[in-house]
Amino acid sequence: MPTKKNPHLKSRLHPRNKNRERYDLEALKTVVPELKNHIAINKFGAETINFANPVAVKLLNKALLNQYYGIKYWEFPNENLCPPIPGRADYIHQVADLLSGNILQDIPTGTKITCLDIGIGSSCIYPIIGTVEYGWRFIGSDINPTSIAAAQQIINANTVLSDNISCILQTNPKHFFKNILAIEDKVDATICNPPFHASLEDAQQGTRRKIKNLSGKTLKTPKLNFSGVNQELVYEGGEYGFIRNMIRESKTFSKNCYWFTSLVSKQSNLKRIHEVFNEVDTTEIREIPMGTGNKLSRIVAWTFLTDEEKKEWRRTRW
To answer: Which E.C. number(s) belong to this protein (predicted)?
Structure first.
């Protein structure tokens, strides 16, 4: 007989994602009591969060980190980007599979693995999940001193993170790896959630659409439900321009990294991104699909290492 599917299972999420099942709001309210002020009954008679409210979203994610990852302190300025935990966790799990060669029982773990998070942000989210789930070490870079300071405060306040994550201020916003990696440095993967929009107006238009979908309301100047300051959301040339420049600079650091990766939110950018890969002579490119709720995205990964160099890398580092 066919097995029954769990109707509450978020099947698009990675099999190792801790939040594949419907949120246990009772448990989450226990760890973050303020969350109860933002829970309402939907038209189906079930408790739900007001996802159009940035305060509610931040409290939910704070509770998820506490309940599922043991992170007791997670504070940062409200104007900074508040990441959705399940989607960020999926990225980390996909990188783990990428490093394993998609052999799920052979994922490299522990401090022998080092990842570079380009744009750690004030929430420190990718290093948090990667450290708790796999014991990896992280270097987190950012062009915003306030974000670096907030991330460092989170690291200092959680013992599980304190020895595994280093924060570095990127002093030149035009660079991604330069000023962060020295010639002799090696990282096993880079992770990046690029700025999505080409202008602040573009960001506001996107937010208006999102708020209308979530609440049915049309707001002239909506407040971002996941927040985010200008540097986190806007880059000249948008997401494509950011990834294009990152790929081009990665060529200079081709032997410093096993897998370079980046999130790509807009599928329409993929064709032009592959044209950039043709410029830099990568040895392998992968596209990894991801999905949370109704949102589809993907990771693009590339490497300059030959098969022999990959074998030597694994032998000497892992």
So the answer is: 2.1.1.181
